[in-house]
Predict the structure.
Amino acid sequence: VPERRLTNRIRTLRFLADEMTQGDLGTAIGVTRQTVAAIEQGKYSPTLETAFRIADVFGVPLDEVFQWERED
Amino acid sequence: MDAPFREKIAWIELVGMTLAYGGYFIAVELAKPPILTMILLFAAATAVRLLILGGGYLAFASASRTPADERDRAVDRRASSIAYLVLLAAMILVGVIMPFGGETGPRVANSALAGIVLAELVRHGAVVFGYRRGWRA
């Protein structure tokens, strides 16, 4: 099985949403600011429900937030 | 320290337990006191631990305490499952193996306490690791 890793564009999407803060995003999806930071940095993979909540906040499909990429 | 509340508490527990129970086990091993003194020493060590922990809660609770979210729960689950293996190994050593080596009384009791303390240290250490480095799913 090829190694893959979860990446995301949350930082970019926050920037495009009037520089939404990690704290504001965390409040909107029901997690702490530190958890949003950990997701952005790839230190924590969120549950599917939280992933959908994030996509919902930015009004984009899930695969515009998270990508499942091959590791080189 | 811009860390989650539960990571801060885990650090405090690591330091508090190491100081309190480390001191207790060193004192017991070196002085080999009578049982009553041993019990009082353990109570004192527990009081020291609780004081340090209480200080940590007072210092951090108002500023950064938030309800546990999914990451907090995931970190706690992973840390507890790792610590469980340590506790299991320690209890097998103390309850199954030590009696066959002729060990009895206070030494078995202190070994059991040491196993519990070690498992708790591993749990708090794993919590810190989980927040600092994270685990890939």
Notes: Chain A touches chain B at residues 5-6, 30-32, 34-35, 38, 42-47, 50 (CB under 8 Å).
